[in-house]
Input
Amino acid sequence: MENHNTHAQDAHGSHGGSMKSYVIGFLFSIILTIIPLVVVLNDMLSKKATTVLILVMAILQFAVQLLFFMHIRDEEKPRFNLMALIFGLVILLTIVAGSIWIMTYNTVG
Output
């Protein structure tokens, strides 16, 4: 019984990340949040460039969250998790794009 508990603790212990990984992820998250904030507050770029910058920073922020906090690369079978994630993103993008399309081209009367 004691051997079983030790094995279970080892399996759960490998799920967590190291403190170094969390600190690096946190710093990246802060930087990726501050960059668009400074650009918007100081009106440094045009409206279109600012929108593109915010979208790029959001995508990078998403990647940082997955890699450093959700441990997407640390799983035993990361390919299955990645495929499920991509499938979910395709559904999400389809719903969002479809909603925007309907709101844009919906004419009354």
User: Anything to note?
Assistant: Residues 78-105 form the longest helix (28 residues). Residues 76-109 form one domain.
